[in-house]
What we know:
The complex is a heterodimer.
Chain A: E1 13-16, H1 20-24, H2 27-39, E2 43-45, H3 55-59, H4 63-74, E3 83-85, H5 88-101, H6 108-116, E4 118-120, H7 121-128, E5 140-145, H8 148-153, H9 159-164, E6 170-172, H10 188-191, H11 193-209, E7 214-217, H12 220-232, E8 238-241, H13 242-250
Parallel strand pairs in A: 1-2, 1-3, 3-4, 5-6, 5-7, 7-8
Helix pairs in contact in A: 2-13, 5-6, 11-12
Chain B: H1 11-19, H2 22-42, H3 48-64, H4 66-80, E1 82-87, H5 90-103, E2 108-111, H6 115-119, H7 122-128, E3 132-135, H8 138-145, H9 162-173, H10 181-198, E4 201-204, E5 208-210, E6 215-220, H11 224-230, E7 234-240, E8 244-245, H12 251-263, E9 270-274, E10 288-294, H13 298-302, H14 318-321, H15 324-329, H16 340-351, H17 368-372, H18 379-391, H19 407-420, H20 423-435, H21 447-450, H22 461-474
Parallel strand pairs in B: 1-10, 2-3, 2-4, 4-7, 5-8, 7-10
Antiparallel strand pairs in B: 5-6, 6-9
The structure holds iron/sulfur cluster.
Iron/sulfur cluster binds next to helix 14 and helix 16 of chain B.
Amino acid sequence: MTPIKQYPPKPARVYFFGTCLIDLFYPEAGLDGIRLLEREGIDVRFPDDQTCCGQPAYTSGYHDEARAVAEAQLDLFREPWPIVVPSGSCGGMIRTHYPQLFSGTPREAQAKEVASRVFELTEFLVHVCHIKLIDKGRPEKVAMHTSCSARREMGLPDTGPALLSQLQSVELVEQERTAECCGFGGTFAVRHPEVSGAMVNDKVQAIESSGAEHFVTSDCGCLMNIAGCCRHREASLDGEHIASYLWRRTA
Amino acid sequence: MSVQTYTPREFHRQAHDALGNPQIRANFRKAMDGLMSKRRDVFSDWDLDALRELGANIRQRALARLPELLEQLEANCQANGIRVHWAQDGDEACRIIRELCEARDAKSVIKGKSMVSEEMHLNTHLEGAGIEALESDLGEYLVQLNEQTPSHIIMPAIHLNTDEISEIMHDKTGTERTRDVDYMTAAARAQLRERFMAADVGISGVNFAVAETGTLCLVENEGNGRMTTTVPPVHIAVTGIEKVVEHLRDVPPLYALLTRSATGQHVTTYFNMISGPRKPDEHDGPEEVHLVLVDNGRSSIYQDDELLDTLRCIRCGACMNHCPVYTRVGGHTYGTTYPGPIGKILMPHMMGLAETRDLPSASSLCGACGEVCPVKIPIPDLLVRLRKESVGEGRGNVPGAGVKRHRSEVLAWKGFQWLATHPGVWRSAMAIAGKLRGWMPTRLGGWTDYRSTPKPAKTSLHALVKRHRREEGSS
Ligand code: SF4
């Protein structure tokens, strides 16, 4: 369990770490996250030299490679501003695994300091911005899939649903086994495609039977997995990153 | 039903078979859903996190003094009249137990549930020596009748449903075909009763071995554990060296965590505290009590500060009950004595990473196991550590370290590292990927068997942010 976090007051400026999946596959979600923060009056800085948090190498067991990649990110956040990450998985990597990865190295203190400034986007909007959303969209039933890393590693099962529940015309529907993994797990989906495939099919099934017309996630790994499975099944269900959904309905 | 053998080497094939077997899928899903909800309910009025913290601390404290505590346990057991034996590995433990049986000229052994005895294939060994070993835990009994191995550490026959059990009992023991669970339980009970009376030796496991008093604690629901440890003239308890705790007062919190995590019970029907053989003025109990302490790879886990956490395990099975992979593939698929998350972090030490090569990777690292583990074993972190050992240069102290290191994969990750540490090249690569998006292959390994191909976006976030800033500047 992550220790209870003391949230700072809303800052004037934040860093935004976009993540590699968003950079490559879902850039709009990243931009929508930035727009949401800017609308709260925050100056958002996007260090141009950011690439990837190093997690794919880390979870695959290539820790030297992961450390080198992580090290290249550490220097991008020199000012003491919060670092907002639109992914529980990359946020969790920086918050919990950077300190482990650099433990006993000259970068240990810096890694810990950076880790302490990391916030997942929905967490930041709820607990730091105290955002108030005004829904402009049509009535809709929506299901939320909170990523396992946001839920367990970062201890944030509620912030995504809390944001959705602010949208007046949106009914957040409960799916069976909400907390169960969608089966993505990075390289797991490639190394164990059949098991992962069974998991994602069950997830799509659960979302479909909840009566949801649409689903949102706070992590692009889960999104790629669940939406990809919907498309493969030719299901009418589609999903998007929660940042895009929130922006789309409130802009 | 045909006899099947499973091996971790065949994880993929076994997973494929299990996933394609609707009966297996349904049996596990239903059973695991039930166990998860029972656990949730029974902990609902507890400060679970504080209790887990306490459980973790008790186990950690015991492990920190393991060598000392084992000596203390030995001394106190001896003082109580329990004879203590040490076994380096499973074979040695089997030999010790066989010799103890032979010394009494034993032909028939009755067994309480013991995963350690499964780990060392004790039954096969005894049978080889002409000693019949009969399982008396109902689930173990069924699995043995069906010539299988347990598919779960707490509920060995959880892969079987009522109809299958009825069929097995009918085939092997001549009972009626029925869905009447009470009838079947009563029949098994009657069959076992006779055997208890005739057994020369009883063999059980141990849940907690208390160093300060030399007491062996045994947690069970069926009373077969009590019968096993009291009816035959000889009782042999067999356990891993990590099961020792310092104090008697350490037992209640661990017991509270164990029963609730395992089966969602506040208490079990039986809780046995064995503190020695029958005394001269006592009417029942065994004449001899032995404790066999088995290492079998545990002391090598003990050498490593990080891996050491593995030994905190109290074998509650909650990690498998909550595992989305275990729920779908079932226990046999793993091909190991301990299946599920605990199996994935424990078996590589016992069988080596070559034999268990597909286990550490068979996890989405969703963290459900670590979240429920009553002694807070960081299972996902340990899986990552074992992955690191598998692909490392083979200097780690896990047997088979480096077995999955392949040049091509190492180069791929080096390439990733290079790209992700050269931001200018990274940005160009993102831009090129956007241009080539139409050229993406429509098949990407196993990914596209269940999902459509992801396509890179036309414009990367890097480029979008630049455009966004320009627009801001011009507005
Ligand atoms: S690892 Fe934890 S959850 Fe799994 S069996 Fe051991 S104690 Fe129980």
